[in-house]
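User: ok so my PI wants both of these folded by tonight, can you help

Assistant: No problem, let's get them done. Here's the first:
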Amino acid sequence: MDYVIEMLGITKKFPGIIANDNISLQLRKGEIHALLGENGAGKSTLMSVLFGMYQPDSGVIKKNSKEVCIDSPSDATRLGIGMVHQHFKLVHNFTVLENIMLGVEITRNGFLKMDDARKQVLEISQRYGLDIEPDALISDITVGMQQRTEILKMLYRKNEILIFDEPTAVLIPQEINELMNIMQGLAAEGKSILFITHKLNEIKAVANRCTVLRKGRYIGTVDVASVSKEELSEMMVGRKVSLTVDKPDKAPGGVIFEARDLVVKSRLTGKNVVDHVSFQVREGEIVCIAGIDGNGQRELVYALTGLAPPDTGVMMLDGADITRESIRGRDKHGMAHIPEDRHKHGLVLEYNLAYNLALQTYFKPRFQKRRFLRFDAIYQYAAALIERFDIRSGQGARTITRSMSGGNQQKAILAREIDRDPKLLIAVQPTRGLDVGAIEYIHQQLVEVRGSNKAVLLVSLELDEVMNVSDRILVIFEGRLVAELNPKETTQQDLGLYMAGSKGNLPAFSKEESSA
C-alpha cells in the first residue's frame, strides 16, 4: 500500500533520555491517524521531527515513497506539512489575519497586499466553516478562536498533511465537537491528519487507525473500530487502567473555607465578572465549580488564591479572614493551589525540578541556615517527592523543568502542593492535557486529600471529571452561581443546560448562598 508519509526507524535522543527509540509510523492519504501515549511517551517529539523542529539521530522520512530531508519547519511547509502545536505559535499583538499570512506574505512592489490575503483567508474560512474575525487581535480572542487561526494558517499554506498536537486540551465541549467535525471534513477532502491526543473518546469518534507509543517505543498500530477504549488504555499504559473514580461515600465535616458575596469587576468594562458569589467547602468533600470557559472562573480563582484582589466580599479559611492576605499568607494559613496555567503560575521553567519543588518552602528552617540555602536538604527533599509521586525526568532532581513532559510537570506541582498538607486544595483544570494514566493518578490524589479530612475545591471544564470526582457541583454562568447539584442525582445533559444558562434561578441561588 502507498503511504503519503512514512517515518521509518526514527530515533531521537536528548540528555539522559531516548525520546524516540526506533519508531515507525505510516500515514495513508485521507485518513485520520491518532498517535496515543502517556505524557512523555515521545509523541510530540516524533511530530516535531516530522515538522523539522528536531533532527532525528537515525531513521528515514518518506513522502509519497520518496525519501525527504526536513531540516526546518520551512522545509516541512514546502512539502505540504503543517502543524498546530499544543501551545499555539501566535503573535499576540498581531491580528488574526496578520498571523495567518506571517511568513508567506503577498507583496507587490515591496508593499503587503492585505486585501488579497483577506479575500483568500475569508474564502478558506467559509469553505471549512472556520468563522473568524480577521482584524481581531490574538490577545483579545478565545482559545477556540486562536485554534481556528492555527488551522487556517495550515490551510492558507495549502498543507496536505496536517498535524494536530493535543488540539482539544484547551477547548470546551462545544468547541471539541466542532473541531472533530472540521477534521472529518478535511479528511473527506483528501487531506491526511496526524492527531496526537490522550482522549480515548475522541480517538473512537474520529480516527481510522491509531499508533500507540510507550516510554519512547513503538507498541503497535490498530484499526480503531476493532478495539475498545479499555484495550487502547492498556496498550498505552502497560496495565489495566480504571476509567472510573473509586471514591468511597463520606459525610463532610465542618466548614474549612467560605466565600461571602465576592465581587470582581472587569478592569476594562467595570462589569461584575464575579457577581456576588457565596459558597462553602467543608472538610472531607470535593466541591466542583463547573461552567463553560469564560464565565468568571478564572477571575474567581484569582481572587481566592490572591493572584488578584476581589472588589468586595470576604474569604474565610479555617476561621481566619484571608481576604487581604498575600499569596504566601494564604499558603501559611493552609491554602494550596494547582493553577490552570502550569507554565505561567505553577513553575519556573528554567529552574530545575528540585528548585521548583521547594518554591514555597525554601524559606523554612529545614531548607536554610543563617539565610543561606541548604542545597543538600533541597535535593534530598526533591528526591523523596520524585519517588513518592512517581515524577519522571531524564536527570532526576537536576532536570530543567521546561524539558519535562506536561504530565510530569503537573505531577511536580501536585507533589509540592499536597506535601505541604494543606487545609484547602484549590485544583484548577488539574488533568488538562494529561493521559488516562496520569488522570487516574491525579484523581486518586484528590480523593486521598478528601479522605484525610481536607477540603478540595475543583474547577473543571471536563464533564466526566466534574461528574465522577465531585461530591457537590456549583455551576457558574456569567459570573454567578446558578445551581448547586448532587452528581448522583443529575445527568451530564442537565449539567450542560445549567452551564449554558438554559436552566437555573440566578437570584434565588445567590441569595440562598449568601445567607448560608
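One down. Here's the second:
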Amino acid sequence: MTNQKISISYLSNSLKTHWKADLSAGFIISLIALPLCLGIAMASGLPPMAGLIAGIVGGLFLSLTGGSYLTINGPAAGLAVIVLTSIEGFKQLAPAGLTPEQIELFAYQNTLAVGLACGVLQILFGFAKAGILSSFFPSSVVHGMLAAIGIMIFSKQFHVALGVKPEAKEMLEIIAAIPSSIMHLNPHIAIISLISLIILIGHPHVKNKYIKLIPAPLAVIIIAIPLGHYFNLESETKYLVSVPERISDGIVLPDFSNIFTPFAIQMIVTYSLVASLESLLTAAAIDRLDPEKRTSDFNRELFSKGAGNILSSFLGGLPIIAEVVRSSANINNGAKSPWANFFHGLFLLIFVVFLGGIIHQIPLSALAAMLMVTGYRLASPQSFIQTYRIGKEQLAIFIATIIFTIAVDLLVGILAGIVIKLLIHVFNGLPIKSIFKPFLTINKTNDDTYRVEVLYSAVFSNFIGFKKQLMSLPKGKNIEINFENAMLVDHSVMENLQEIKIKYEEAGGSFKIIGLENHKSLSPYKSSGRKK
C-alpha cells in the first residue's frame, strides 16, 4: 500500500474512519502501559510519576508529531539502566552539606537536564537526516546491548522482588549480592513477587478466552493489591507505589548547572545514541508487522522523539522511545493509525487524575516481577542460541558487548562490540581501505535493469554509503547486487539487503543478490556473513 504522509488531513481522516478501533486498542495498551510506566520509573531510580508523565507525553504529543503509524511511545526498560546510571553519577557530584533528600532531588533535576539535552540532540539528528544511522550498528552489538540491559534490570529488580535493598552500587556487586538477598528475603514481599511471576509466565498459556482478555500486567495488579492489603503493606509504605495527590505536584524542573561536565556530556551521548537507535529499530520492526505495509519516516521519528524528550524532561518525566512490545500489542489489538497511541496517553492521564488512590496501593514487588520478566526476555538463553546459529563470530561480539556493558558502561560496551567486529572482519580479509567507504559501480544494462557491482567489501561500517546509493535507484525496476568481486559481505549487510529486497519488491520492482557462489558462508544461517 502506498504511504499516506502523516499530515493534519491524514490524522483527521483517520480519526473519522478508525476511531473505534484505535480507541479500543489504545485503552487495552494503556492497561498494559500503566504498571510498566510505574515499574520503569522505579528501575530508573525516579519517582513513579516520572514514568507516567513520559507515557502521557509519549501518547498525547508524539502520536501527532511522529513519523511512524502504529508505534506506542513512552518509557522503556532499555533506557532505565542509563537513567539509573545518571542518577547515581550525579549523586556523586552533589555539593557537600546536602541532606539525602536534597541529594536525590539534585540528581533527579540534573538527570532531567540530560534528558532535555538528549532531546535537542535528537532534533538535530532529525534535521541532519540521521535516520539512516540505524543501518550502521551491527545486529550482534545491538542485541548484545539489549541483553546486557536485560541482565542488569533482572539483577537489580531481583532484590526489590525479595524486599531487600543491597548496599552494593556497582552492577557486578549487585549481581554478586543476589545470594545474600535470598538469605534475607522478606517472605510477604517474596510471595507477592512469586505469584506475580507465575501470572506473567502462565498467562500466555491460558486457553480461557475471557481470562485472555485481561492483559497480564493488569492481572498482576488485580491480584497483588489484595495481597498487599492481606499482608498489611500499607503500614510500611516503602513497599508500595508512591504518587502525589495532584498531578502538578509530580512536576519537577531540570537543573542545568552541571550540563557541561564530562559526566553529563557522556550521559547525553549515551541517552541520545540508545534512545534514537531503539526507536528507529522499533519503528522498522513495527513497519514489518503493519498489515497495510506502511513505511515510517525515520528522520521525522528522530525529530519527534527529540521534541517529546524535551517536553517530558521539562515536566519531570523519563526519556521516551518507541517501545516494541507495546507497539506489537497495539497491532494485535486492531490499531489502525497513530490515534491508538494518542488514546493510550489519554487513558493514562485519566488514570492518574482519577485513580491515584488505587495506583498507590500497588506493591512495588509486583512491578519488580514485571521488570524481571522484561529483563529475562531481553537476555533469554534463546537469544544466545540464536546468535550462535548466525555465526560463532557473532556470538563472540554479542558476549563481548554484554561483558563490557555490565563491567564498565553502555557506551563502552557498544564501542567494544564494534571494535571487536571490525577486528574479526580484518582477520576475515576485509581490506582496510573499504572499512568505512563502499566501492561500487552502478551500470544500467537496459531500460529496466540496474546492476550494482560491489568491490572489496560490504560490511556494517560502510553500509550507510552503500544504502544511500541503492536508495537513489528508481522504483519499479530490476535491481541486481553482484558480490562476485567482494572479499567479504557481513551478516548485518545481508540482513539489511533482505529488508530492502522485501520493500522494493512490494513496490513492484525486482531485487536480486548474485555473485556469492564462490563465497564461504560463516554459518548455516541464511543471512550469515560470506567471505571469498
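The chain has a mean pLDDT of 93. The longest strand covers residues 449-458. Good luck tonight!
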